[in-house]
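Here is one chain, start to finish.
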Amino acid sequence: MTDPDTTTEPRRSPDMWVDPEDDPREQWADPVGELETHWSYLRTYRTTIELKCEGLDAEQLARRSVPPSTLSLLGLVRHLAKVEHAWFRRRLQGQLELTPLYADARDEDFDGAVGDPAVVEEAWSTWRRETRSADAWLATQGDADMGRTVALENGGSTSVRDILEHLVEEYARHAGHADLLRECIDGRTGQ
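Its structure:
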């Protein structure tokens, strides 16, 4: 008989999404180069957001955190689609003619996140379209492009590196929000 205190196999808590060996995220990957490192973190956080939303219905996804906040998992998906669109398409690719997403009103990405299956489908479809577009653009870039300067709408400028770093920060911050939101919905935590 094996002593349970000496077992080296990872144990999954009942509130975890997947067994550690089945985790689809790229954490602890060994990317080569600066661009691949940023991109790897971005893909990992994107997958984390998907995991946090997995298995929930439209009402649960749209459930607000703490009134009067409009923060919800569905709002986060819409917000992150908006962020991907703004930074990758409009700024990095210079497609300023594109209408910003969820910009009909201030906080439209969160305020419009209602518990309707059609709204959920549209949010995921939009987010996936924007992440695919971003990944297609990133695939054309290399480490030498990281220092390239990009003009901003306010007349300033920044580097591709700074934009990618901002996106990793944005996803990391919202993955933390997603942890708390999911825990409020059904008690599932972390991972």
